[in-house]
Amino acid sequence: MMEKYNRVVLKLSGEALAGKLGYGIDPEVIQSIATQIKEIVAYDIEIAIVVGGGNIWRGMAGSAKGMDRATADYMGMLATVMNSLALQDSLEDNGVQSRVQTSIEMRQVAEPYIRRKAIRHLEKKRVVIFAAGTGNPYFSTDTTAALRAAEIEAEVILMAKNKVDGVYDADPFVHPEAKKYQELTYLDLLNGNLGVMDSTASTLCMDNDILFSCFPLWKRATLKRLYSRKNWYSN
Ligand code: UDP
């Protein structure tokens, strides 16, 4: 049997949760994600999840329309809390124990982010969902995934994508001849401005030797394939 990962961070973009709706939360998609996560837990892999908020609100879009950037970003972080609660609900519905930890304190809703407590939950085989990003404006949930992965010593970040099945050298929807990478370094990502992960997140991963793998969310078997440890930066 191939060596498996012990602890992973799964990054779900907000858009992924929207599914075909294009906005908000698609219950079917969230149910499918929850069952896939359940399978990972069953393989004895500790899993922490960072959820985005782009299906509800993106700070940049708000600030482009004249809103104060920090305020718009805080709204984005609150959007990630809604997504996290929806995911937790679905996980628990599927019999998977989970805890939401938020970087912005809201005690009636979720636990505050406490690194050691998060690790303890993981050790007890609970899924931990990190909500409210880093708690700081001007950051993204990609960066949150990189930061939390470094903090909890996860080996890999699994980036769920809902349109592409890996990393390409150009947008495959615009350039059908675009080439898919089998392997990639963070420097390639940064130099090529490849957009699969933002530059702050890439730098953090590069400096802390965190691997990332990019997989299509709609192909159910793919997440399972990522149980095994492969020295890929993408697939
Ligand atoms: N955000 C932030 N700080 C963080 C994480 C997120 O300000 O540490 C805000 C930012 O406005 C962002 C929004 O939350 O646009 C939603 O997160 P993101 O765009 O990363 O979500 P995704 O693209 O994964 O859906």
Pick out the low-confidence regions.
231-235
Alpha plus pi helix count: 9
Cα(first) to Cα(last) distance is: 20 Å
- The ordered string of helix (H) and strand (E) elements is EHHEHHEEHEHEHHEH
Kindly provide the radius of gyration, computed on alpha-carbon positions and rounded to a whole number of angstroms: 17 Å
Structure description:
The chain has 235 residues and is of the alpha/beta class. The chain has one domain (7-227): Carbamate kinase (3-Layer(aba) Sandwich). It is built from 9 helices and 7 strands, in the order βααβααββαβαβααβα. Strands 4-3-5-2-1-6-7 form a 7-stranded parallel beta sheet, with helices on both faces. Helix 2 (27-42) packs across helix 4 and helix 6 packs parallel to helix 8. The longest helix has 25 residues, at 69-93. It is globular, with a radius of gyration of 17 Å. The protein starts with 6 loop residues before the first strand and ends in a 10-residue tail after the last helix. The model is unreliable at 231-235 (pLDDT under 50). Bound molecules: uridine-5'-diphosphate. The site of uridine-5'-diphosphate has 23 residues, from helix 1, helix 3, helix 4 and helix 6.
